[in-house]
Write a structure and sequence with these properties.
61 residues
Length: 61
Amino acid sequence: MHCYFCIIRKTRDIKPLPSMELQSWCKARTKRARFFKPIPRSLFDLVDKCLTVNPRLRISA
């Protein structure tokens, strides 16, 4: 029973990761910059809106 409370205490101390723009995340992790350059900014904006956590701002079907 004591171990169960240790797990709860550890999970309570977990902090969320800071938010990051999708375009900057992709730019930092792409291995082929030439494929990244032709992608329009509007596509990144659309994907960002679909992935938004706030349901009032999120685009959904």
